Design the sequence.
């Protein structure tokens, strides 16, 4: 469920049509029809938002009994009216660390940069994406990805509903990435998980070992990465600059 916030002023800023009442009603319907496991998306870093207001949103989500929470920092393009009012990087980093602390206090353990779950309630389909698994997307605008011949192959179906119904799966060609592009995508996705990258498995799959790259030792030394039991893991400090870490390794 895309809650984003339980506070009307911030939903208005995000141009969301929902409300606290509609979030509660949606959860009520899920429970009524037997869906006992669900996720709530929250957004922090909204201009003007305080730490206490972020804490309030987390408290509301936990009180609804959701098993999983995704919490994302607001990201906007420069042309957006709110872009100039986004928190400075240091404040955004403080908010991210605050979110993680508050969610863990509420019983939600972080298992990926932006995702938290109660015990044994991690999102299975998200784990498939992050581990480089194959998936078939069905429906308008749905994306698919398959790993063939050492590279990823992507396909996105027609966005128009009428065109989608009139097409066959083979009408939209696959876009094949190069080996370097596949490595970059896999690095970025797999390292987001708290469990990190299985270095031996990664090397078998891509003939590339991040731990053997010149920058790896420096990233460990600077406190951005750990190399534990054959896995490369981001530290809490590393999660704040995950994209930079990946670019140095690729």
Sequence:
């Amino acid at each position: 469920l895309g809650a984003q916030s339980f506070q009307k002023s911030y939903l208005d800023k995000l141009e969301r049509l929902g409300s606290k009442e509609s979030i509660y009603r949606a959860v009520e319907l899920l429970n009524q029809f037997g869906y006992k496991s669900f996720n709530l998306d929250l957004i922090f870093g909204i201009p003007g938002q305080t730490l206490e207001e972020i804490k309030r949103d987390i408290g509301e989500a936990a009180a609804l009994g959701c098993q999983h929470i995704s919490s994302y920092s607001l990201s906007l393009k420069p042309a957006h009216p709110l872009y100039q009012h986004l928190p400075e990087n240091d404040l955004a980093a403080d908010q991210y660390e605050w979110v993680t602390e508050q969610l863990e206090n509420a019983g939600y353990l972080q298992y990926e940069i932006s995702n938290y779950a109660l015990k044994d309630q991690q999102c299975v389909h998200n784990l498939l994406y992050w581990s480089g698994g194959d998936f078939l997307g069905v429906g308008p605008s749905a994306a698919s990805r398959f790993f063939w011949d050492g590279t990823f192959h992507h396909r996105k179906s027609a966005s128009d509903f009428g065109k989608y119904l009139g097409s066959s799966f083979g009408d939209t060609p696959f876009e094949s990435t190069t080996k370097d592009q596949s490595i970059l995508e896999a690095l970025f996705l797999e390292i987001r998980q708290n469990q990190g990258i299985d270095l031996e498995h990664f090397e078998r799959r891509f003939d590339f070992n991040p731990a053997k790259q010149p920058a790896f030792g420096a990233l460990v030394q600077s406190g951005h990465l750990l190399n534990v039991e054959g896995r490369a893991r981001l530290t809490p400090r590393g999660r704040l600059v995950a994209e930079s870490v990946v670019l140095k390794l690729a």
The chain has a mean pLDDT of 94. The chain has eleven helices and ten strands. Strands lie at 39-44, 68-73, 109-112, 115-117, 143-148, 151-156, 175-176, 197-198, 225-228, 231-234. The CA atoms of residues 140 and 162 lie 9 Å apart.
